[in-house]
Design brief:
This protein is mainly α. The chain contains six helices and no strands. α5 runs antiparallel to α6. This is WKF domain-containing protein. It comes from Araneus ventricosus (Orbweaver spider).
Length: 175
């Protein structure tokens, strides 16, 4: 296939050479043809590279968009699960995926608001088994890290303090 493209490009270059004004040097014609073929083939390669680059970029953007959409849907499902647990336990049923998301994001103030965190504290009181022990370990790590990092900038302290306060609240409830 590459030879077909080269032969087509060479044919185009010869046609171009025939149609351009005659300079009177036949030896230069073959050199010009070779240069034209090289220029055309390089331009063709560059065009293909750009096309592939754009195609990959579109795929990346679509993947990122889908991932963000899935993340938002998962967050909404978990928060709705928590609200259903709080408001109507008769119709509520346990969903491990939602519980895992809640426990994984328990310290994230962007994902779980303060009002939802209060409901989550009540949910965690009834937590049992390995999930409870993993949460205790996580909280202890956060508290230990906070104690070690007392000398940070003010902006980091706000986020760290919120995480620390949440970890302390959880430890108080779990013990």
């Amino acid at each position: 296939m590459a030879t077909d493209i080269k032969s087509l490009v060479l044919a185009k270059a010869k046609i171009y050479a025939r149609n351009k004004p005659d300079s009177g040097a036949d030896e230069n014609d073959s050199e010009d043809d070779t240069k034209n073929v090289q220029k055309v083939s390089e331009a063709e390669k560059e065009r293909k590279r750009e096309k592939m680059r754009l195609k990959k970029q579109k795929k990346r953007e679509a993947r990122t968009k889908t991932l963000k959409k899935d993340t938002d849907e998962t967050k909404n499902a978990a928060i709705n699960y928590l609200h259903e647990w709080n408001s109507s336990r008769e119709s509520w049923c346990f969903k491990k995926k939602q519980q895992c998301w809640l426990l994984k994001n328990v310290f994230d103030t962007d994902s779980i608001s303060d009002s939802d965190f209060e409901i989550l504290l009540n949910y965690i009181i009834e937590l049992k088994g390995a999930a409870k022990s993993r949460l205790i370990e996580e909280c202890e790590k956060v508290v230990k890290l906070q104690e070690e990092k007392l000398e940070q900038s003010a902006s980091d302290e706000d986020v760290a303090n919120t995480t620390f306060e949440r970890a302390r609240s959880l430890l108080q409830i779990l013990f």
